[in-house]
Amino acid sequence: MALTGVLRPGHVQIRVLDLDEAVAFYTQILGLVETGRDASGRVYLKACDERDHHSVILRKADRAGTDFYGFKVLNARTLDLLETDLRAYGVQTERVRAGDLLETGERVRFHAPTGHLFELYAEKTEIGDTLGYLNPDVIIEDRKGISPVRLDHWQIHGEDLDGSRDLFVNVLGFSLTERILCEDGKTDMAVWLTCSNKAHDIAFVRDARSDTSHHAAFLIETWKKLLYAADLMAKRRVSIDIGPLRHGITRGTSIYFFDPSGNRIETFCGGYSFYPDMKPYTWTWEEMGAAIFYHTRELNERFLSVVT
Amino acid sequence: MALTGVLRPGHVQIRVLDLDEAVAFYTQILGLVETGRDASGRVYLKACDERDHHSVILRKADRAGTDFYGFKVLNARTLDLLETDLRAYGVQTERVRAGDLLETGERVRFHAPTGHLFELYAEKTEIGDTLGYLNPDVIIEDRKGISPVRLDHWQIHGEDLDGSRDLFVNVLGFSLTERILCEDGKTDMAVWLTCSNKAHDIAFVRDARSDTSHHAAFLIETWKKLLYAADLMAKRRVSIDIGPLRHGITRGTSIYFFDPSGNRIETFCGGYSFYPDMKPYTWTWEEMGAAIFYHTRELNERFLSVVT
Amino acid sequence: MALTGVLRPGHVQIRVLDLDEAVAFYTQILGLVETGRDASGRVYLKACDERDHHSVILRKADRAGTDFYGFKVLNARTLDLLETDLRAYGVQTERVRAGDLLETGERVRFHAPTGHLFELYAEKTEIGDTLGYLNPDVIIEDRKGISPVRLDHWQIHGEDLDGSRDLFVNVLGFSLTERILCEDGKTDMAVWLTCSNKAHDIAFVRDARSDTSHHAAFLIETWKKLLYAADLMAKRRVSIDIGPLRHGITRGTSIYFFDPSGNRIETFCGGYSFYPDMKPYTWTWEEMGAAIFYHTRELNERFLSVVT
Amino acid sequence: MALTGVLRPGHVQIRVLDLDEAVAFYTQILGLVETGRDASGRVYLKACDERDHHSVILRKADRAGTDFYGFKVLNARTLDLLETDLRAYGVQTERVRAGDLLETGERVRFHAPTGHLFELYAEKTEIGDTLGYLNPDVIIEDRKGISPVRLDHWQIHGEDLDGSRDLFVNVLGFSLTERILCEDGKTDMAVWLTCSNKAHDIAFVRDARSDTSHHAAFLIETWKKLLYAADLMAKRRVSIDIGPLRHGITRGTSIYFFDPSGNRIETFCGGYSFYPDMKPYTWTWEEMGAAIFYHTRELNERFLSVVT
Asked: In this structure, are strands A56-60 and A43-46 parallel, antiparallel, or unpaired?
């Protein structure tokens, strides 16, 4: 078959310091839709054009950060096969029962070499995007705030980048689309990986601070809507890290900003279409600035230092 | 693996009445790049952001139309497997030697039940898009005319729609994304199929005129560039069928127009991202107008009657 | 001074058959803001980025059409001077008392040779666009529906086009920006006039049906927002006349549609910047199609026949 | 009349260190069109949608900066009247003979209180924008590089801001659209002035460095074309000061960059439509950051310190 295995980033559980403040931010400014709360107090949200029950789970905690990263896979059989493959590769896995997350089937969990907790799942209740499946309209009305269309990708940091890269490529079937080399001209400083036609579904950065998150990204439809997003952030005094800007990597455009707890979020737009017969792009150490911030060709200190 | 099997529409051989006039149209107005001519006089072209040697082949003939439709597959092993699967399904296949098309490997040919000649191939020389793979820039300069980024999809007509649909779904791994039902509310009048995250890679329409083409489509980056395309067509007196317009199907936007030989071409923009866990959309007979031309909700006679 | 005399189309009173239905249409679909109702039952509306109290007045009547067209002038002294000039030119004028329209000062009324009732006024209460005048933000939030930024221009029809054209040019200081010639190659079939940097503030078309309106136009910010407008019209089953499309005249883009009473409305976008040292454009009779609908180069029957 | 007096910024003479390098920059990267060279070696350029012979004159010199700023006025009679008014206001004026600048009529020169040399003129040969005036097309083809549509405005610095502001408002008929106040909450730190429907045609900033220029600005059509401009600058290693960004003032969007001689240039897009019945906006000292760079709300050192 043509599209198989791991489909896409499906959900992420983010820790927030003040739940009410976070919900207000994620619904009124970022413009996600609240779809449920569970017995433990977690709040579930989805982007306007997502059809599954949720893509973001907010959990109150005493420090910011990300609990786990979930990928949806094609079906239950794929879930079993991937679990088998992970174990054969030497990765310990654990099953989380269906219903532990609202409206979500069994999840297969594992830790990647960079320390992050990942999970795979095949089932989540489809609640739709308001358009239905019979003679649908083309626009979703009553969108609020920035209103991204979907959860798009993550950039996460850890020491054993090579380990996580190889696991995603060799076991989970991801393709390498871009890399930044270290000063030695050989070792990967950062890698961008995809399981789809997107230019990236996940990025790993080599960093002594294992199991940390640089950002979760949400997809914006146009460069003009990215401008609106920045205007709204400025009006509501959201803490903008940097942007709107152009990436060299992926050719995408972007704004980085912080939720009220200090988790960095990206609104991302664009990116070329990837096919697995394409050669990956390589960026040298000297051109890392242009790789990340194509116009200024210089990184800012905050962008490099803050992870959660 | 995540992206496997058939990758994308890779090339199409179009018949034109006057080769010089056609080359002028496809390079100066549509804005493809000529990449070669072969001993038999065929002209090879590619879109600006395509990396393989060609996606369009123009052949001089005494009537317009399409000779064959080629899909690129992941690799040589996939080509062998798909050939085996086709034969197991009862489809006769034929190998065309490497080099028959410039810079192209062996092709596996077969006729679909709608009468069209398809081919699969795994190898074509990568000539790049001018950006290179080391510290690439983000824009391609010196683009001419309309300048689509790639060949996108085809809509083709034939009597045994069910046969071609089932072949593409069951053997080639395509997914059904949308359908229009006949007046009986059961039979498919038209189907849209994808082998990727695109909302469609090919569409089949039930039509007594088997082995005919409605249009070949090229991807445009934005609705604004689609306006420029229409402006340029009007300035150069290209025969516009209809557009710019919005489709209900795929949510895409479009202009339909004719090359000097009467082949209908589409410049297409947008379309939602498809994943194989998504339900297909169904359009009823009564809403066929909105399915195709979402704003006016009415088809025009020429759009229905002209195929080549 | 640099900007003097007549400033811009300031308001228009439109007749509607069902007031509730009309208010629902103009506020929820077109997306104007209701700002008041007067003792006679008229409803006042403004566009989101207009600062004066209103630009549209809806009056219940038993047939559609336009009661009068109001231009704002620089100040009270200008109002007096223009009244004097009109009378000197042989035009009868009448003063309507301040307060006859809500929040509006005295108006000077006159009939143009094409039969239309115009009025000039210098004062209308400024209620703002929500941004204020101290450290303003750059976006207006909570916009509904199509949400044009302002009333833009009118196209109106009448027999004595020459008379109205000369009155607007010679007395009111308008400049001719474009014209379509009649079949004789000499007489004006239609003229576009401006009192600002806009490509047109009003257009007159020669037509035996004097004192009729072809459309009132509202300004949309981008071609992309025009697409959204058409999508929303289609979703809400608004009667679209034609569009989205490109005009040859003004280089603007447009959708024409009808309010529930049958008044034609245009959402207009773009248009070049005009300065009075620029030569006017002339369109010949044969190219009238391209002048109006640049891509198709053909007029539709409904566009020509329906006026109110 | 509705549009009278001073029409628009018409030309600017810029000093460059290396003429060949400058011409290459202004034609191939900025994308102006060279229209002539005079006996003294000056190079004349225009933007693609300007119709007069030139808007930029490059003069080789041993330091960067601006020689003079020219405004076009309505006609010869207006030129005489404004000269009379200037003298009545106590400003010395000088006539420069027709032909001193190629294809340009007599110019009336004067120094503003901020030290800058201005000139007014009524005549310049109209060479058109390639579209002609009979059945014109809507797009200009073969545009190169960034390709702004016109010269838009200047920001210039000097000590006696009050004097220049009053001269432009009281004698030349400009309107104040926005101001930033000094720390005292009363004095103008900077003022934005217009003679048209533009949000600004010129800005004065209070600065001990009299007769200096902060930037000359060229108009870009869309926020998307501004992104392309930045991409092209990055690719060609143009020195970008800052951007793409949003201004609080004017609501415009922008990139600031330097020509090879160090003259700062702005590509500007947008800005609200101004009418002289509108109240000016006031920005307080504390919000100067947001006034200039709306998203980050912080000025950069280079933006403040470099003038030529």
From this structure: antiparallel
B221 and B104 housed in the same domain: no
Residue C283 has pLDDT above 70, yes or no: yes
**Contact yes or no for D174 and C138 at CB 8 A:** no
Helices and strands, counts by H and E, chain B: 6, 17
Same domain, C179 and C57: no
Tell me the backbone φ, ψ of residue B131, rounded to 5 degrees.
Answer: -85, -20
Residue D229 domain-assigned?
A: yes
Answer yes or no: do B287 and B174 share one domain: yes
Q: How confident is the model at residue A300 (pLDDT cuts 50, 70, 90)?
A: confident
Closest CA to D296 of A241, A116, B189, C157: A241
pLDDT at B300: 84
Identify all chain C residues contacting A137, using CB atoms and an 8 Å cutoff: 231, 234-235
Instruction: For residue D231, give the nearest of A222, A246, A296 by CB distance.
Output: A246
Lookup: tokens for C242? 């034609």
Interface confidence: ipTM more than 0.85: yes
C226 touches chain D (CB under 8 A): no
Residue B121 is a catalytic residue: no
- Residues A45 and A160 placed together within one structural domain of the fold: no
DSSP code of residue C28: I
Identify whether B87 is part of a domain: yes
Same structural domain for residues D111 and D166?
no
- Domain containing C272: what range? 150-305
Q: Do C231 and B296 touch (CB under 8 A)?
A: no
Q: Which helix (H) or strand (E) holds D83?
A: helix D76-88
H-helix segments, B27-159:
76-88
Tens digits of residue pLDDT in B108-162: 999 999 999 999 999 999 999 999 999 999 999 999 999 999 999 999 999 999 9
Q: What does pLDDT average to over chain D? A: 97
How many structural domains compose chain C?
2
Measured between beta carbons, the chain A residues lying within 8 angstroms of C141 are: 232, 235
Give the CATH number for residue C67: 3.10.180.10
Same domain for B185 and B44?
Answer: no
Nearest C-alpha in D relative to A238 = D295
